[in-house]
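Researcher: Go.
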Amino acid sequence: MVGKMTGAGDPDNRRNMRFGDQLSADEKRVLENFKKLGAIRRAHPALRYGSRRTLAADHDLYAFVRAHLNDRVAVVFNRAKSAAKMDTTVAPETEDVDYADALSGKQLEVKNGKLEFNLPAQTAALITKERD
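Model: Structure:
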């Protein structure tokens, strides 16, 4: 069972914040995920300042690429209950080099301006250029 935050309507919505060992395992997992996302956002100015172009949008899959100066990040969300195949053109924002999903560490490659990979069910990917 997924943990829930305690509280309800006013005045029960003003409970004290809990930290450390007071957090459930689910809450700790969410906290670690947000820390990782924050670090990725700090490392990639495109996620803060970049232009955005939609790559794919349907009922279960949404993808876009952000670009700022020399930084590029493709962001993909799969909300389906099954894996999704991502097969899209990411040029001109990206070049044909090695990339990685900053969330999973999975290695990816852009060839001829196209990005192809499978994204597991109900996951996301933040695809960034491999550092030199």
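Model: The mean pLDDT is 89.
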